[in-house]
Design goal:
Strand order of the largest sheet: 6-7-8-10-9
CATH topology: OB fold (Dihydrolipoamide Acetyltransferase, E2P)
Distance between the termini: 17 Å
Number of domains: 1
Order of helices and strands: EEHEEEEEEHEEH
Structural class: alpha/beta
CATH architecture: Beta Barrel
Largest sheet: 5 strands, mixed, barrel
Number of helices: 3
Length: 181
C-alpha cells in the first residue's frame, strides 16, 4: 500500500468523516493516518475543514476544558477548539504580544462563529483527547478561523476537497486507482 505523507506545514483538505476516522500515526508532531481504500494511505498532522456550526459548548472550568464548536460539512460532524498555545514558538516579548493579539482575535471569531448556522473554515492540527479528558475523542485545534458569508463557500469547499482528495489517493498507476469513499 502506498503512503502519501504531507509536510508539517501543509493542511490536508479533508471531509469531517475522514478527520474523525483518522487514527493516531505515532510520528513526530502528532501525526494522523487515514486509509484511502486498499491502495493508499495519507499521513498528515494539519487539516483544513469547512462546515456549518451545528452546536457550541462553553468552556468548562478545568484547564483542559476549551470552548468546543461542532461543524457539519454534510459528511459528518467534527469538533473544533482554539489551539492551546500560539504556533510561532518564539519567546521574545514582541512575539508573545503578537501571539496574544492573534489568540484574542481568534477567540472573538470563535465567539462569533458559535452561532448555529454560521459557516466557517478552520485550519489547525488534529488532536486526540487524553484519557479522562472532557474533550471529544478527535478534534481540530484551530490556529485560524474564517467566517464565510458567501452561500457558495460550502459548495466550493466540497469541490476543492474532492479535487485534493483525489490527489491524496493517487498512486500514479491508473490500473490501481480506486474510488475514494
Amino acid at each position: 500500500m502506498g503512503t502519501r505523507s504531507l509536510g508539517g506545514n501543509v493542511h490536508a483538505r479533508l471531509f469531517a468523516k475522514h478527520i474523525v476516522q483518522a487514527a493516531p500515526h505515532g510520528g513526530p508532531g502528532g501525526e494522523a493516518a487515514l486509509a484511502l481504500g486498499a491502495a493508499a494511505s495519507l499521513v498528515f498532522s494539519r487539516v483544513r475543514a469547512t462546515g456549518t456550526v451545528v452546536r457550541a459548548c462553553p468552556a468548562g472550568a478545568g484547564p483542559d476544558e476549551l470552548r468546543v464548536v461542532y461543524i457539519d460539512d454534510g459528511t459528518g460532524v467534527v469538533p473544533i477548539a482554539l489551539a492551546a498555545h500560539a504556533a510561532s514558538g518564539e519567546t521574545d516579548d514582541a512575539s508573545r504580544e503578537r501571539d496574544a493579539a492573534v489568540r484574542e482575535e481568534m477567540e472573538q471569531r470563535l465567539a462569533l462563529a458559535a452561532a448555529e448556522g454560521t459557516t466557517v473554515e478552520v485550519l489547525g492540527r488534529i488532536c486526540y483527547a487524553r484519557e479522562g479528558s472532557a474533550m471529544p475523542p478527535v478534534w481540530i485545534a484551530c490556529s485560524h478561523i474564517a467566517i464565510k458569508d458567501d452561500p457558495m463557500s460550502e459548495t466550493v469547499a466540497v469541490l476543492d476537497t474532492l479535487e485534493k482528495f483525489s490527489f491524496y489517493g493517487s498512486t500514479g498507476d491508473p490500473d490501481t486507482q480506486q474510488e475514494l469513499d
